[in-house]
Amino acid sequence: MSTLKIEDVAHVRFRAPDLTAMRGFLEDFGLLVVEETDHRIVARGSGPSPVAHVTELGEPGFAAIAFRAESVADLERLAAAEGVPVEDCDLPGGGKIVTLKDPDGHTIEVVAGQAAAEPVALSDSTPWNRAGARERLRATKRIPAGAANVVRLGHVVLNVSDFRASERWYKDRFGFITSDEIEAAPAFAIGAFLRCDRGVAPTDHHTLFLLQAPSGPGFNHAAYEVADLDDLMRGHQRLKETGRQAEWGVGRHILGSQVFDYWRDPWGHTLEHWTDGDLFTAEDGSNVASLQDLLGVQWGPSMPPTMG
User: Fold this and answer.
1) DSSP 3-state of 217
2) How far apart are CA 71 and CA 113, in angstroms?
3) Distance separating alpha carbons of residues 85 and 149, to the nearest angstrom
4) Residue 14: beta bridge partners?
5) Contacts of 149 (CB under 8 A, 6+ apart)
6) Beta-carbon neighbour count of residue 18 at 10 Å?
7) Residues 66, 13: contact at Cβ < 8 Å?
8) Sorting pLDDT into bands at 50, 70 and 90, what band is 126?
9) How many whole angstroms separate alpha carbon 40 and alpha carbon 52?
10) 93-110: per-residue pLDDT in tens?
11) Which DSSP helix (H) or strand (E) runs through 194?
12) Distance CA 233, CA 224 (A)
């Protein structure tokens, strides 16, 4: 039994030497800046989560991942098991926070008791006309130019030094379920897509992906859900027009099935736009997949070497 079962990923933290430059990128990416001081920028999506991305002033680098617990009581149980304090969270939404270190020294935060943000209406909600379901009648569909509508942070990928050790650490504390385990050779696993255990409630195919990569431990990427395919392509156009660094996309993954589009922030950290991902319950179990499944696409360009 795990110490608790997290609800979702909450936010990621980074450091950067130029907060103004980071703000420009975040706005082009489609995040909403909700706090800006001399020492940090906080941004959210259009959904109810009050925080999705934090940048603190400093030398460029990845700083932390945060997961969301169901209750402060869960945080207190985790803190007691780990011998760490429950502290006030100083981010928008308030609440409480517990801070841990994983086997590779990555900072892992767990938050609870945050006040929800007021959702922001999406800029386009007109339906699609598909061959089998024509829902938009006597009306045009016009996609306004602009950044994507980032709704929420959906998952984070970490490179780890020892997959089995990291897998056990995260599952023991947070109750993750394997969706797809990646085998580089028969009976030799190098990673897994892990989803939250929400019982009968459908949850994303993965909230965390752990990968034992040749490059060693570190941040791989964070992925933000956008409204739909039109919205993802609109965001692609904005990022391209503003001279941002594209990395991979547009395409559709095999594992998780989502349509993806990867970009790099001004200091080289990879952020993904995605839409139309798989949803599973606890009853749906786990699968084993190949390295070819991980690297391949259903359509779109091949994975670039920079994604390792």
Assistant:
1) coil
2) 6
3) 36
4) 55, 62
5) 30, 46, 122, 123, 226, 227, 231
6) 13
7) yes
8) confident
9) 13
10) 999 999 999 999 999 999
11) strand 188-195
12) 14
